Amino acid sequence: MDYQQIIEELCLEIAPLQKIGKVADYIPELAKVPPEKFGISLITLEGKDFYSGLYQEAFSIQSISKVFGLSMALSLAGDSLWSRVGVEPSGTAFNSIVQLEYEKGIPRNPFINAGALVVADVLLSHLKSPKADLLEFIRTLAKNPAIDINIDVYISERNTGSLNASLAYMLKSYGNIKNDVNQVLDFYFFQCSIMMSCYDLATAMLAYADHSKSFDYAGYSLTHSGVKRLNAVMLTCGFYDESGEFSFRVGLPGKSGVGGGIVAIYPQRFSVAVWSPRLNQKGNSVMGMKALELLTTKTGLSVF
Amino acid sequence: MDYQQIIEELCLEIAPLQKIGKVADYIPELAKVPPEKFGISLITLEGKDFYSGLYQEAFSIQSISKVFGLSMALSLAGDSLWSRVGVEPSGTAFNSIVQLEYEKGIPRNPFINAGALVVADVLLSHLKSPKADLLEFIRTLAKNPAIDINIDVYISERNTGSLNASLAYMLKSYGNIKNDVNQVLDFYFFQCSIMMSCYDLATAMLAYADHSKSFDYAGYSLTHSGVKRLNAVMLTCGFYDESGEFSFRVGLPGKSGVGGGIVAIYPQRFSVAVWSPRLNQKGNSVMGMKALELLTTKTGLSVF
Amino acid sequence: MDYQQIIEELCLEIAPLQKIGKVADYIPELAKVPPEKFGISLITLEGKDFYSGLYQEAFSIQSISKVFGLSMALSLAGDSLWSRVGVEPSGTAFNSIVQLEYEKGIPRNPFINAGALVVADVLLSHLKSPKADLLEFIRTLAKNPAIDINIDVYISERNTGSLNASLAYMLKSYGNIKNDVNQVLDFYFFQCSIMMSCYDLATAMLAYADHSKSFDYAGYSLTHSGVKRLNAVMLTCGFYDESGEFSFRVGLPGKSGVGGGIVAIYPQRFSVAVWSPRLNQKGNSVMGMKALELLTTKTGLSVF
Amino acid sequence: MDYQQIIEELCLEIAPLQKIGKVADYIPELAKVPPEKFGISLITLEGKDFYSGLYQEAFSIQSISKVFGLSMALSLAGDSLWSRVGVEPSGTAFNSIVQLEYEKGIPRNPFINAGALVVADVLLSHLKSPKADLLEFIRTLAKNPAIDINIDVYISERNTGSLNASLAYMLKSYGNIKNDVNQVLDFYFFQCSIMMSCYDLATAMLAYADHSKSFDYAGYSLTHSGVKRLNAVMLTCGFYDESGEFSFRVGLPGKSGVGGGIVAIYPQRFSVAVWSPRLNQKGNSVMGMKALELLTTKTGLSVF
């Protein structure tokens, strides 16, 4: 499979979408990113890498960080985690509090904000230095010790986080947040403000695509079955209420962030990360979604 | 892979579940089925078949029929079908009318009842003898000309179908049913009352697992991409609001019915059908779910 | 109190609203009514009547008929009626099916469509000739034997009643419709198509304003407490999800219909009916609402 | 009308209810109140007062305080207040966040918690010493300078207020809280912890029943129409999702609190306050509701 040629083809084909969609603007730091930016990086299990555009430029990974936080929490808490958060698609927007109230404080899955707040709470209960530990875990996965947060994004998130605070207090009222709400929120905003490039992300996600070796990074380990299940949750829940659409068009487990990044994996074959800041109405990168759709269409590779 | 041995092992392991769950009783004909019945049939792409229990006994396939109806509608209407029904998980129970009202008459996906009613409506618009044509399509897929409906189930469905009638009239009020509501309901109840064995179902589903040859049965054809997308919808939406759980535990595209049947496929490898009438609270077969979970755990085969 | 002068004043003040709002157009017969029509009729307990505009012109009373149907059902079934329908404001649009599903088939109150369908079902269970009996009851209340339905409206309602059919089948699925759904719908559409003038309506509603004598018309009787409670339900539930607004601005028990009519009563003092076909977004007459607000503001008379 | 005799009769009749219902226990201070306590106080416009039981014992007025806060906010902000909070019944439980999200941060009415938080925010925007001013207003209304908060209740409320914090942050996320969320919550918990007796409350509420003189207390004034509209909101929204039931059975504007208190007024006639800590499932005093139902049944006095 000539991935490099396919990548170059799809870059041409998505170019007309460059002006479509809207950069996330709920915090100034995201709104400032030039909207035409684009990068893609694909790495195979054999270690070959393919890329185009600004694949080495770091951006705010936002909700993609939920994959890494969930991995740590699963390693620490095991399957008991699933008594505090479900694995069902939410069927509603990513920040809906409705479902949370209706289902008595158990978030539908770990990739909606409420679920990620519960995961953050689990990490705070287990770790003395959760922020440092998260960075260490991600740096190890991505083999890049320079990965860090963007301090301006971090501060902005904290100042505009009323909706997440509302979710966190709702969880607290049902007893599904054990630590101080402000500390949970602080950690959550910290993880959202981590900066990574497409290359960093593709490298990190390779660990989820590779079933041949055990998952064990910076002291956090998952069973073979644990990795597969995490991939399953990415496929059914990774794109908010566009998860079905992503599964339908792309057919790979993946996760998006409002910074415009998307990661996806083809188990046993490759990982891929793409970045473009303009988002569709569901909050997913317009060019990123199309790039991955073309990738699986052109390669004929999807899990289905 | 020694599938036969794995099947025999899992049959032993699920035996303790024999008394758990409740047979569907909304119509007398389903309630009459002895609850301990169990069968399983697995067929590989190479044509080898493995089985256990009552794998040749026909049962009411109920919602599994939605896969076949959808295939015909896609063949007839093409992608225009997706303007009338979505591909997102519903996040709610299989018969919820709430979402339908909230989303102005566009069902979330073709596997909730409302979506299947729209699919039925499409078939009625395209076909002169939709019932005969559906039977012909299924008989061809399953290579069994004896497949037919259970007339008692069919009549019972019609007499107890108020909830489906409510859904159909709601769709009609939004203009998303074009034909006479009673005819649409009649066809829908017809398809639900089709009887097939595990062997029939595994044979029929092999067509969805097999990407090496084109999908063309009884005049209904799907593209390679069309089959994959249909599989994707099965994975994200095939088990009502337990779809995430099935994806998480089993990791295969599949579809269940309240008659206690479940079908699933491993693309490029095999299809499998299992049957046991006792259902869990979400309406899916208790032993069937566990059997498939053990199958993918023991074989290490899942799409993730 | 010089009601006639007040009525003439308010007619001048509401004149500028003549072009605001939209005539109901879900059936052609309502859409055909000239939108500038206006009439008002007020009758005191002493029997003096005051009026302006087309107060003798009959129009489609639509949901105002729910007051009369409810009165008959209460007379026939007594307080047992309240086990099948509640007395709480719905907080949602008049035809919402969501609440119905959430609350297991018990409509919030008798003035939303679902509640009126249950009331219709009660009448069908008790009466041999429910249509004739309803007409007889209303003719007696209004002292006008010429009151009848508009046959074109009746037929149109039947042809466009998918949403009401959806509600009725939902009620049936919960066992809260006992008779044939089509007969219930037919009776409901019949009652909606009754034609009355403002004068007819004010005369009929005087029975609800007058506590000094017993309520007993055409064989249907209510206790003193029964009438007061019916008035209470009008105040809290009579204007769909604008009931609070009507109570806030007008401060009288009342009921509106999408034909543009509104009735209201001031207990122990007067009844009033107003008609103007243009509706606001909540489905209530624009000029009618304003006329009644001015009436209570100018007279200083409200129940509060 | 011999109110004293009627009060004594109804006290006998409600006695059998003494063990029914459950004292609010979400904070220890409320749970500690002996559940059999009961008091009632009725004051006519002529200044005659009638009573029974512990009518002089102070209790936690909780949500009854919302009436007083709303009065001050209306005096300060005028009708512009209604752009930030509605006047419609909520149709759902008193603390539901669902409606808030669905309606973009505009609470349905000022008597659900979300609405009261907006009202509190308005007071904080207008007043330098909102707590002292609220106490001063209430002391003036009740003619009792000794009225104060229960400091233990106040502290407990603050420690268990996650759900209200969730509501407040949701409002903040929609821009409908202008001040610091913690200050708004602090003021809200302060007002809930005010202690008053039935006699205090009946005295205070007399101001709302009395239309003959202008409403002007401690510098806060309402127009005649303003008082009537406030009464209207009490009738349609004063009892959470049991407002329709209270209107139906009692037929008076009123307001309840989870401390077991209920106030009600008959415009131009009397005010009444009743207290009994055991609550029904909707959070309203069991004996209090029944006492007021009997009061209006026996006197034949209701606004309908």
Radius of gyration of chain A: 18 Å
Shape of chain A: globular
Fraction in helix of chain A = 40-55%
Distance between the termini of chain A: 18 Å
What is the strand arrangement across the widest sheet of chain A? 3-2-11-10-9
Note the quaternary state here.
homotetramer
- So how many helices of chain A? 13
Unreliable stretches of chain A = none
Question: In percent terms, what proportion of residues of chain A is strand?
Answer: 5-15%
- How many β strands of chain A by DSSP? 12
Instruction: Give the biggest sheet of chain A.
Output: 5 strands, antiparallel
Mean pLDDT value of chain A: 94
| Biggest interface, chains and residue tallies | A-B, 37 and 37 residues
Q: Which class do the helix and strand fractions of chain A yield?
A: alpha+beta
Element string of chain A (H = helix, E = strand): HEHEEEHHHHEHHHEHEEHHEEEEH
Plain-language structure description:
- 4 copies of one chain form a homotetramer.
- Chain A is 46% helix and 14% strand.
- Chain A is built from 13 helices and 12 strands.
- Chain A has helices at 3-14, 28-31, 65-77, 98-102, 113-126, 130-142, 151-159, 162-173, 181-192, 198-209, 224-237, 243-249, 286-299, and strands at residues 22-23, 39-44, 49-53, 59-60, 148-149, 194-196, 215-217, 220-222, 254-256, 261-266, 270-275, 278-279.
- In chain A, strand 10 and strand 11 form a beta hairpin.
- In chain A, helix 1 packs across helix 13.
- Chain A starts with a helix and ends in a 5-residue tail after the last helix.
- The A-D interface holds A 96-98, 101-102, 162-163, 165-170, 172-173, 181 and D 96-98, 101-102, 162-163, 165-170, 172-173, 181.
